[in-house]
Write a structure and sequence with these properties.
The complex is a heterodimer. Chain A contains eleven helices and no strands. Chain A is mainly α. The longest helix of chain A is centred in the middle third of the chain and has 31 residues. Chain A is globular, with a radius of gyration of 20 Å. The chains are: A mainly alpha, B alpha/beta.
Chain lengths: 271, 476
C-alpha cells in the first residue's frame, strides 16, 4: 500500500539528485548499446592519443620547445592535453543548441529545473576530461617524464575558470538555441575557429603582432598554455593570464546563468 | 483562505502570444524594454512599441477562470478540444505560468498530462522510473523502495529493462500511471490517460483512483468519457473558449456538454440552459449524495437568471412531476409537454417496488410535420450510470408520422427489474431530416423515481434469480 506523507526532498537535495542522474545518463548515453560499452570511455581517448603521437610526433616531427629534449611523445601529450580542454568546450557548444529543444517533455510536461540540463551535460564532458587526465598521467609516467606534482596543485586553479566558462556558454547557447534554431549551424564553424585559435597544435610563443593582439583575448588559449606550463613543462605561470581566465570565466558564467534564468519561462511558449 | 483548499485560482488567464517566429519571442520583449527607456508619449517609444507588437498576437487559451478545490475532491474537467483544459491542468501542474491572475497549489502534483510525459525514450523503463521519481522530488532510495510495487502495477514484465522507445503506447501509459500512483501525490492529474490500455488495466486504474480519493488525494480528471467522469468525480466544470461555462454536478455538466457537441450550438444558445441549471442549483437543494462539497465560483460567466426561464421552470415544476434535477433543451419545433410515471393501475407515482410494472408516459406535441418521429427513454442511476436506454428506432418499433400541432401520448411499459435506489429518467423527442438527427426536445433526468427492494439483493439490475438446491445424487 502507499505510505503517506513521504518527506519531500528539499529543493537543493532534489536538484542534486536530478543533476547526478542526468550526468550519469549523459555519460552513459554515448556508449549505450555499443558492444564494448563502458570500455569506450577509455579506449576512445587512448586511440586519439595514439593517433597524435604518430601523426604529430613522428610524421610531422613538430615540437613545442616546452623544455629541453622534447620527445615526439611529449609533444603528443601536450597536444592531447590541449585537445582534451578544447573538447570540453567544443562539445558543450555543439550539444547545447539542441539540448533544451530536444527535451520538450521536460519543458512542457513536467516541472523540471531546466538549468540542470546544460549543467549535467557539461559535468559529463568534464568527467570525460578527467579520464583523459588519468591517461595523460599514465602516459607521462610511461615515457619517464612524469607530470609535475606542484603543477598538479595548480591545476584546479587553472581549470576552475574553464569550468565556469563552459557552464556559462552551455547555459547561454542552450537558451539561445531555443529561440534561434540557426545557432546549430553557427556552432560547428565556431568550434573549428576555436580549435585553431587556441594554440592547440602550436605554441603561443609563435604568436606575434596582429594575431596575438586578437588571440590573447581567448581564455581557452591561456588555459591550455597555463596547464601545459604547469603540468608538463615546469615553467613559471603568467599570473596576468591566469587572472584574465578567471575574469573571463566568471563573467561568462554569470551572463550565461542570468540569460538562461531570464529566458527560461519563455521556453514552453516556443517549443 | 482555508487550509482545506488545496487549489485556489483567482481570475486565471493564459494568453499565448502567437509569435511570428521563435526569434520574435526574444526580440519583441527586448524591443519593448528599449521602448520603455523612452518617455511614454515620445515618438521612439511608440515606434518601438509598434515594432514589438508586430512580433506577436495574443490568443487567450484561458480567461478569468476562478475555482477553489478542497482537499480530497474529484473534479472533472470537460470541454471540447481547444477549450483550455490542458492549459488549466498544465498551470496547476506548474509547467505553465499564468499570464494574469493568481494560482496557489498546496501539495505535490503528480500529473499524467500525456502519454509517458517526462520519459526519455532512450532509457529503460527502470531508469525512467527513477528519473521520474527524482523529478517529482523522491530520492533514489525512496524510489528503490517502491520500485517493485511500480513494476508490479505496470505489468510490463521484462520490458522494464528495455528502452522506453520500443514500448507500445499502452505499456508506456501503464508505466507512467504506475509511477504517478506510487509517488504519494496530493493532487493527481489524469488527462485522457485511462483511454489506453485494455479493459482490465483501465479497471485497475479506476480502482487505484478510487483508492486515492478514499485516501484524500485530490483528483483532477479530464476525459471525453462522460460516464467515467460521472462515476469518478464529485463535481465537474465545463470549459468552452477558455472560460468556465458551467460548474456543477457531473451529470448536469455532461448533459450540457453533450448539447454543446451538437452542430450549430453556440455558447449563446446554451445560455438559457445554463441559467436554468443555475436556478435549479439555487432553488432545489440536492438530494443526491454528494460526499464532499466543492465550491466553484463563477464570477465571469455569471448571468442574471432570465425571468422567462424561471417562470417556465417554475410552471413545469407545479404541473409535472419533476425530479428537481431536470435539464431540458430544444422545444421550438416540437415539445415534450408532460412526462409521468404510472403504476399498473394508471396512477402517477414516484416510488415502486423492484420488479413492478411501470409505464412512463410522455405527451409530445409537434410543431411541424414529422415523417418519422423518434421517442427515446434513458434510465440512469444516481451515480449517473446509464442502466438502460432505448428508442423507437433502436427497438424497431417505429412511430407513425405526426402532423403539425398534433399531440401524442407515448408509453414505455416495462418491468422495473432494478435494485433499490434512486433512478433518473430522461426523455427524448427527435427525428431525422435526411441523415441528420434533429433534436426536437430532450428532457434529461425529468423524473426521479425511488425503487424499493424486497430483500438484500445487490448490484444494479434485479435479475430475479430462482435459487434451488437439491441433493446431488451422483458424485461429481
Amino acid at each position: 500500500m502507499i505510505t503517506k506523507l513521504t518527506p519531500l526532498l528539499s529543493g537543493f537535495a532534489r536538484k542534486r539528485e536530478l543533476w547526478w542522474q542526468f550526468t550519469v545518463r549523459a555519460v552513459e548515453v554515448r556508449h549505450r548499446g555499443s558492444y564494448l560499452g563502458i570500455i569506450w570511455l577509455v579506449l576512445n581517448p587512448l586511440l586519439m592519443l595514439a593517433l597524435y603521437v604518430t601523426v604529430f610526433g613522428y610524421i610531422f616531427g613538430s615540437r613545442f620547445r616546452g623544455h629541453e629534449n622534447e620527445t615526439p611523445v611529449d609533444f603528443a601529450l601536450a597536444v592531447f592535453l590541449g585537445l582534451s580542454l578544447f573538447h570540453v568546450l567544443s562539445e558543450t557548444i555543439s550539444a547545447a543548441p539542441t539540448l533544451i529543444v530536444g527535451n520538450p517533455n521536460l519543458v512542457k510536461k513536467v516541472v523540471f529545473p531546466l538549468e540542470l540540463l546544460p549543467l549535467a551535460n557539461v559535468s559529463a564532458y568534464w568527467f570525460h576530461f578527467l579520464i583523459n587526465m588519468a591517461l595523460l598521467f599514465v602516459g607521462s609516467f610511461a615515457v619517464g617524464n612524469p607530470v609535475s606534482p606542484s603543477g598538479l596543485l595548480w591545476m584546479p586553479i587553472i581549470l576552475i575558470p574553464h569550468i565556469l566558462l563552459t557552464l556559462g556558454i552551455g547555459w547561454f547557447v542552450s537558451a539561445l538555441g531555443v529561440f534561434f534554431r540557426d545557432v546549430t549551424q553557427i556552432t560547428q564553424v565556431l568550434a573549428q575557429i576555436i580549435l585553431y585559435a587556441s594554440a592547440i597544435f602550436y605554441s603561443t610563443s609563435l604568436l606575434h603582432g596582429v594575431a596575438w593582439q586578437f588571440l590573447k583575448w581567448n581564455p581557452l588559449l591561456h588555459t591550455i598554455q597555463l596547464s601545459r606550463q604547469a603540468l608538463l613543462w615546469n615553467q613559471p605561470l603568467n599570473l596576468t593570464h591566469l587572472g584574465y581566465t578567471w575574469i573571463a570565466g566568471t563573467v561568462t558564467c554569470i551572463i550565461g546563468r542570468w540569460f538562461f534564468h531570464k529566458t527560461k519561462h519563455a521556453f514552453a511558449d516556443v517549443i | 483562505m482555508s487550509s482545506d483548499l488545496i487549489i485556489q485560482a483567482d481570475n486565471l488567464s493564459k494568453a499565448y502570444r502567437i509569435w511570428s517566429n521563435p526569434a520574435a519571442r526574444l526580440k519583441s520583449p527586448l524591443i519593448e524594454a528599449a521602448a520603455a527607456a523612452f518617455p511614454r508619449a515620445s515618438t521612439p517609444h511608440r515606434a518601438l512599441a509598434a515594432r514589438a507588437a508586430r512580433g506577436y498576437r495574443d490568443f487567450y487559451a484561458l480567461r478569468d477562470v476562478s475555482l477553489s478545490i478542497k482537499r480530497g475532491q474529484a473534479l472533472g474537467i470537460i470541454g471540447r478540444n481547444g477549450s483550455g483544459k490542458s492549459t488549466l491542468l498544465q498551470m496547476i501542474a506548474g509547467t505553465l505560468t499564468p499570464t494574469t491572475g493568481t494560482l496557489s497549489v498546496n501539495g505535490r502534483v503528480s500529473a499524467l498530462l500525456e502519454l509517458g510525459s517526462g520519459f526519455n525514450p532512450e532509457f529503460t523503463g527502470r531508469e525512467n522510473v527513477f528519473i521520474n521519481g527524482a523529478i517529482l522530488g523522491l530520492s533514489r532510495a525512496q524510489m528503490a523502495d517502491r520500485f517493485a510495487a511500480i513494476a508490479d502495477f505496470a505489468e510490463i514484465g521484462d520490458f522494464i529493462d528495455q528502452p522506453v522507445k520500443i514500448y507500445s503506447s499502452g505499456m508506456l501509459m501503464r508505466l507512467a500511471f504506475a509511477v504517478a500512483a506510487h509517488v504519494d501525490p496530493d493532487i493527481l492529474i489524469v488527462d485522457e490517460a485511462l483511454s489506453v490500455g485494455d479493459a482490465r488495466f483501465q479497471l485497475k486504474c479506476a480502482r487505484a483512483i478510487d483508492r486515492f480519493i478514499a485516501q484524500g488525494v485530490t483528483l483532477l480528471f479530464v476525459s471525453h468519457d462522460a460516464s467515467l467522469v460521472k462515476r469518478l468525480c464529485h463535481h465537474a466544470i465545463l470549459l468552452e473558449h477558455g472560460q468556465v461555462l458551467y460548474a456543477g454536478k457531473p451529470n448536469d455538466v455532461v448533459n450540457l456538454y453533450s448539447k454543446l457537441l451538437i452542430d450549430g450550438t453556440t455558447v449563446e444558445s446554451l445560455q438559457p440552459d445554463i441559467t436554468a441549471l443555475k436556478v435549479k442549483q439555487e432553488t432545489a437543494p440536492s438530494f443526491m449524495p454528494t460526499p464532499r462539497d466543492i465550491e466553484v465560483r463563477l464570477e465571469p460567466a455569471d448571468i442574471p437568471p432570465d425571468a422567462q426561464t424561471v417562470a417556465l421552470l417554475t410552471d413545469e415544476r407545479e404541473h409535472v412531476q419533476v425530479s428537481g434535477q431536470e435539464f431540458a433543451y430544444g422545444g421550438e419545433l416540437g415539445r415534450i409537454a408532460s412526462v409521468t410515471a404510472l403504476d399498473t393501475s394508471g396512477q402517477p407515482r414516484t416510488w415502486f417496488t423492484t420488479g413492478e410494472r411501470i409505464t412512463l408516459r410522455m405527451v409530445v406535441e409537434s410543431r411541424e410535420d414529422l415523417h418519422e418521429p423518434i421517442f427515446a427513454l434513458t434510465v440512469k442511476n444516481n451515480a449517473g450510470v446509464e442502466i438502460y436506454g432505448t428508442n423507437t428506432l433502436f427497438s424497431k418499433q417505429p412511430a407513425p408520422p405526426m402532423k403539425t400541432g398534433e399531440h401524442r401520448e407515448v408509453n414505455f411499459t416495462f418491468d422495473l427489474n432494478l435494485i433499490q435506489g434512486h433512478y433518473f429518467l430522461s426523455f427524448g423527442f427527435t427525428h431525422f431530416v435526411g441523415d441528420k438527427l434533429v433534436v426536437l426536445q430532450r428532457r434529461y433526468d425529468a423524473i426521479k423515481i425511488d425503487v424499493h427492494g424486497l430483500d438484500r439483493t445487490f448490484g444494479i439490475a434485479n435479475l430475479k434469480a430462482a435459487i434451488t438446491s437439491r441433493l446431488a445424487t451422483s458424485a461429481p
